[in-house]
Design brief:
single chain; alpha+beta; 24% helix
């Protein structure tokens, strides 16, 4: 966690607040993926939280460089839907064409 503190040059409280405003009431995409994930809030520093995919899909970064993007699309990630107790019979889009 100390490497994150050293590399982050902004105001952590302002960054966390801006992320909350962006993602509150929305879903999120990881990078350019078409999969929409449910939003969960993960502990960051000093009691602050940042948005993460509910299913804990991996990515690199804090979101400051646009790794996570808010969306209003419905949740399409099967794992997020299952964790929320929703129907998982809907088809999840393929990550890439086979």
């Amino acid at each position: 966690m100390s490497a994150l503190l050293v590399s982050f040059q902004g105001d952590p409280e302002a960054f966390a607040a801006s992320q909350r405003r962006l993602f509150e009431g929305h879903r999120l995409h990881v990078g350019n993926s078409r999969i929409a994930h449910a939003v969960a809030w993960a502990p960051w520093i000093n009691g602050l939280t940042l948005p993460v995919p509910l299913c804990r899909q991996g990515w690199s970064g804090t979101g400051a460089s646009g790794e996570l993007l808010p969306t209003r699309f419905p949740v399409t990630c099967r794992r997020c839907r299952r964790l929320r107790g929703e129907d998982t019979d809907t088809e999840q889009p393929a990550l890439f064409a086979l």
